[in-house]
């Protein structure tokens, strides 16, 4: 009897353990494809339109030039200047593929698709000419990767064998191919991506783990994430093994032990590594790596982030108890960091459904990302100084090719990615951005009308093909959470309550049903995280 009881307790514990493991690493919701979401008139739509113009004014042949040169082919044009011909050659070409893929998915614009297909076809020529799967603009690529493959490795934070962050550079091309396939359906890009993955396996195959970890001291973007993505795309574990090998233990191990060793480190070198730990945990079920990513996110957002949702001074994490440099230095939060923090947040929300992730996402999106584009020229921001009375510098669209220009042309192409999500019969409204959603699976269209944050409400209109029961889950933000939620259905108030950050309305929805959610705003103050005497006013 006793034994039996113990057994049943054990099996209950096991069931709980297994379901907790699954709960942390498998998605609880699905995001809609960007193709299913269209923005309506708003500052976000303006940013998208302007970024589309910018993408089309960029010269594809100039961006391709470094890839041609390294493949031993004659470039059709000279390279762009700035970071594009001084060592980081080709990094923008990779971001450009991603920016075009996001923009095509977000708008369906045929010119954008034509440009993307042109880029892929030209890069395929480079891959064929290289003959080993490689595609890259890193100066002296052939000799560099041969040396690395033979174990001749000399690493610094921002260089590898004397070249400027080549692993970071090739990560952009990997991402671009992945996005061209996943977002725009380009099958050539998929084949190229897989061959490129094989090149990586072959190139690093003979390095010991010690040699590889030494090499990973050099900034390498989120190579572990994209290798995990190749594994998910192909179903082949060998790419997941590569992703695990490419996970930098120096950063991972303290996070596994819940230790904060981030002060002084280059911020945007670390964030993509953590995205990779999280992505790998989704594929191999390793909850410890998931928890390491959550610990990192909590540390950065709670202790290292200012009110706009950005972090770092002069690209580095400063001491958590001393924000003086943040307030005096001309180089405040970097755009790439928030781009990557929002990506990490998107992954963490998908497997947890915790509304705190959306609260951060909203803050960073509205207050940092949206503001990093010059609304007239489309130029992009590197640093957003917190220094009182300071100004910001926007890129010159055809002569500035910084990292934040690369992440910038992606940022303003994908505003539809987090507005909605779904799970079974639940439809989540995460963000208050005017838009139209086509929930194809249910034959339902949704229109969101709002001038938020210029007005304190949003309105959802439901257009089902036929009367359909589902639960509409409206996010009730943390900043409104001390007020009573107020919802009108077809003009009449209905009783609602907030559960886990959402207001759920379950009913049989019919054509033109309208739900209005009030979003009462007020002015609050927020102290800077080091508790010195600086406050932000929030509205
Ligand atoms: Zn940057």
Weakly predicted, low-confidence segments: 1-21
Q: Please outline the major beta sheet.
A: 7 strands, antiparallel
Helix content: 40-55%
Distance between the termini: 62 Å
The averaged pLDDT comes out at 95
Number of strands: 18
Any ligands, ions or cofactors bound here, and which?
Answer: zinc ion
Given the helix and strand composition, which structural class is it?
Answer: alpha+beta
β-strand amount: 5-15%
Helix run count: 18
Radius of gyration: 24 Å
Shape: globular
| Strand order within the widest beta sheet | 2-8-9-10-16-12-13
Give an account of the 3D structure.
With about 550 residues, this protein is of the alpha+beta class. Among the domains are: about 60-245, no CATH class; about 425-525, Golgi alpha-mannosidase II (Immunoglobulin-like, Sandwich). The protein contains 18 helices and 18 strands. The strands form 4 sheets. It has a 7-stranded antiparallel beta sheet, with no helix packed on it. A 6-stranded mixed beta sheet has the order 1-6-7-11-15-14, with no helix packed on it. Helix 10 (about 225-235) packs antiparallel against helix 11. It is globular and about 70 Å long. The N and C termini lie far apart (about 60 Å). Zinc ion binds near residues 335, 336 and 404.
